[in-house]
Amino acid sequence: DSGVTQTPKHLITATGQRVTLRCSPRSGDLSVYWYQQSLDQGLQFLIQYYNGEERAKGNILERFSAQQFPDLHSELNLSSLELGDSALYFCASSAHAAYGNTIYFGEGSWLTVV
Amino acid sequence: AQSVTQLGSHVSVSEGALVLLRCNYSSSVPPYLFWYVQYPNQGLQLLLKYTSAATLVKGINGFEAEFKKSETSFHLTKPSAHMSDAAEYFCAVSAEDSSYKLIFGSGTRLLVRP
């Protein structure tokens, strides 16, 4: 158990809908990362928050957004869903944002868009 | 730009045989390198981490990896494969930018034959 908790574990929704994925980082971790894992794209970095502030953006679509709340939990919002958004979404956390820090991953949220 | 290359999307070994999963990296600064494992329908679990303290890094479940700067490699090995080692393995490097995110290779699926 990494200590990173993600909900829901599985989600099936229709095209055009909006979903929210939730992440609780390890206790005390300030940095939260979101990754998308798909068969054709592998593990892609989406976005990072550090202590409530957006720190870095990766290959995140404009239809997607995220935030980190004062209690440090984070949410990833996916809207106007398309079939191609079906993937495993990982949340990960680390104590700080520092070179070489160890990043711990949650179990992921499986999103299926039908 | 930093990158990680994993040679071989699939590696098949017999139970009891040596496991060798290859990883090469590109980095303009001394790297921090990681190996993660993903068992079926599970999240990413940290196997081991290279921090420059020692070139041979021992991880969990009998795995180890050797850092070779001259070859820009960080190959993962295990002397004797077990059926329970069947999983996907990811090599990653810590990003040099202020996100310090992980940049992953494309992964290697390890199959263990009885």
Describe the structure in your own words.
The complex is a heterodimer of chains A (114) and B (114). By secondary structure, chain A is an all-beta fold. Helix content of chain A is 0%, strand content 53%. Chain A is built from no helices and 11 strands. Chain A has strands at residues 5-7, 10-13, 19-24, 31-38, 42-50, 53-57, 64-68, 74-78, 87-94, 104-105, 109-113. The model of chain B has no long low-confidence stretch (mean pLDDT 94). In chain B, strand 10 and strand 11 (102-104) form a beta hairpin. Chain B is mainly β and 114 residues long. The chains are: A mainly beta (114), B mainly beta (114). The interface between A and B is medium-sized, with 26 and 23 residues.
Which helices and strands appear, and what pairs or packs with what?
The complex is a heterodimer of chains A (about 110) and B (about 110).
Chain A: E1 5-7, E2 10-13, E3 19-24, E4 31-38, E5 42-50, E6 53-57, E7 64-68, E8 74-78, E9 87-94, E10 104-105, E11 109-113
Parallel strand pairs in A: 2-11
Antiparallel strand pairs in A: 1-3, 3-8, 4-5, 4-9, 5-6, 7-8, 9-10, 9-11
Chain B: E1 3-5, E2 10-14, E3 19-21, E4 24-26, E5 33-38, E6 44-50, E7 56-58, E8 64-68, E9 73-78, E10 87-94, E11 102-104, E12 108-113
Parallel strand pairs in B: 2-12
Antiparallel strand pairs in B: 1-4, 3-9, 5-6, 5-10, 7-8, 8-9, 10-11, 10-12
